[in-house]
Amino acid sequence: MKYFTSFFLLLLLVTTNWSCSRQLLPLAKPAYAVDGKYDSAPPVQGASAQLDKISQSIYRLNVIAFYESITFNRNTHMTLENFKKGNADKYAASYTVSNQSVLGTASVVYVDNDKAALLTCAHVVNFQDTVITYFPDTSGIIRNVAIKLKQKNYVVGLKQSNVKVLVTDGKHDIALLMATVQPDENIRVMPFPIGKSSELDWGTFVYVMGFPKGHKMVESGIVSKSKKNKNGFFLTNAIFNRGISGGPVFAVRNGSQHLEWVGIASSSPVSDIFYLEPNINKAGVYSKSEPYRGELLINNKKMINYGVTFSVPMKEIIRFVRSIEPELKRQGFVTQKFFYHRE
Asked: Which structural domains are found in the chain, ordered by start?
């Protein structure tokens, strides 16, 4: 009986201590700090529902510019002065029509009745009217002149996909487009409030959504507050590919339920790669199995430096929209209806 009583008391003591230990465990804390600041990590609970809403307000933008190209031989010594005098027809070696195309991303920022406005980057829709190429190592002898004939801006997914460029700001890489909406189209303004890009800090986590290489995708990255970034743009390490220019950038404040629109992806730095190419105007004039012995020309192409992405802050975009309010009103827009307004 003595041993049984001792065992019972020991069991009771252990049970009591275990119960007290359970009661002393700290309560679980949220994975993010509820401090009013932008989060520095992706939301643990995910943001799929919010990202799906974003995806319904962005569109792929295809811009095509058509050019008439006039090519001259070197021995004609065509200069810019002679070209302006109207001597192109007399000395032209050939005339061709070509096109250049650019992919981008456009976000809906306004819908009212049959009118919509979309936000993108200026460089996506700004094509030069005239492009002049000179022979290398010559004093101003023209090789080719390309003159823009027309430009088409297509928003893929709209019934009337050909849209108009309203106004652009080349310095800050901002452009507004105007589209005509059909009564049965469900076009949605970006459903998240404008954030404060000035509150972005070292390590702030962001989402970027757009159409890199023509595919609707979401990217993620972190912000760097470099003092050397151009025109007040902020930097992220989100991977930049052609087609994502104009894609909206979102920061997270106090968890995934609180996404804020802080900017649009603009560009990445590029490196120029120079190479030699044959001076051939027509394909198939020489055999690829034989050494080429004709004239060589220096050409170049641009290579993207991935992992360094400049983004236009929303404060510049809001400033831009406010600065063109008279023009927007002339075009029939109600400026108070631009961007999302929380009820």
From this structure: 48-337 (2.40.10.120)
